[in-house]
Amino acid sequence: MDEVQRHPDVELRQLCCLVAIVDEGTFTDAAITLGVSQAAVSRTLASLERALGVRLLRRTSRAVTPTATGLRVVAHARRVLAETEDLVREAVSGHAHLRIGYAWSALGRHTLAFQRRWRELHRGTDLHLVRVNTGTAGLAEGSCDLAVVRRPLADRRVEEAIVGLERRLCAMAADDPLARRRTVRLADLGGRTLLVDRRTGTTTADLWPPDARPATEEIHDVDDWLNVIATGRCVGMTAEATANQYPRPGVVYRPVRDAEPIAVRLAWWRDDPHPATQAALELLTELYRGD
């Protein structure tokens, strides 16, 4: 069996000590800054140099200066310490921020109202909307605290609640013959090619009867989806929010009058909900109820 490679045991206190010595210029001043004895500073630096197997500082009677290797280590140490501070800040004060993820479209015409109402009602919690084009809208990836999704998540670790319903619209080229109609039916689209996103989309060919299903092509980005539809080669089916979020010259949206509406869900981790989850749930439900 291959021997497992061991890495030097480097501790954050050692890096803090090294940076303090370089910043303060002397072991004595570094000790004052760190609130320890000068002997402790010397021991900590010596232990770091032993762990790394290199000399980091050059000491003279008048100054302490980094060696060439020391300069590189100090630069890395500053980055590690800064990232550690960010980590601690996120863990301690993460509840001061609320990240809501979404794929493709956020909350449609309610997006701006939600942001403004949240700012008025919850000034102590900064709201950030984050677009993550995955099946969980960033929840599984750790990119958000709550996620707006438009199909159920098959994960028992996730809790979700329906906040509202949106009409199902057909997106088509502006010069498409169907664009002259106020509404369309599923049967009107049976002979077309439907452009779908199987990861995050809300529509598949299963929406049609087995003997009348449209052909499908797959795509994974809303801008690409709109660009292809504008050419007239394909049509798309989407939630009403997309039309509000992405108006596009050359593309029109028409309601599909015999298709079921799409449920808009708010999802969060069951065992670790953000403290603002209930507030977000109530506000979103109120906004959608106004429809």
Report on this structure.
α1 (12-24) packs across α2, α1 crosses α4 (68-93) and α5 packs across α8. The mean pLDDT is 91. Helices cover 35% and strands 22% of the residues. 31% of the residues are buried. It is built from 8 helices and 12 strands. The protein starts with 11 loop residues before the first helix and ends with a helix. With 291 residues, the chain is of the alpha/beta class. The longest helix is centred in the first third of the chain and has 26 residues, at 68-93. The strands form 3 sheets. A 5-stranded mixed beta sheet has the order 4-3-5-12-6, with helices on one face. Strands 9-8-10-7-11 form a 5-stranded mixed beta sheet. Strands 1-2 form a two-stranded antiparallel sheet. A hairpin with a 4-residue loop joins β1 and β2.
Spell out the key features of this protein.
single chain; alpha/beta; elongated; 35% helix; 8 helices; 291 residues; 5-stranded mixed sheet
Give the SSE map:
Elements: H1 12-24, H2 27-34, H3 38-52, E1 57-59, E2 64-66, H4 68-93, E3 97-102, H5 111-121, E4 126-131, E5 146-149, E6 158-166, E7 168-173, E8 193-196, E9 215-218, H6 222-230, E10 235-239, H7 240-245, E11 251-255, E12 262-269, H8 277-289
Parallel strand pairs: 3-4, 3-5, 8-9, 8-10
Antiparallel strand pairs: 1-2, 5-12, 6-12, 7-10, 7-11
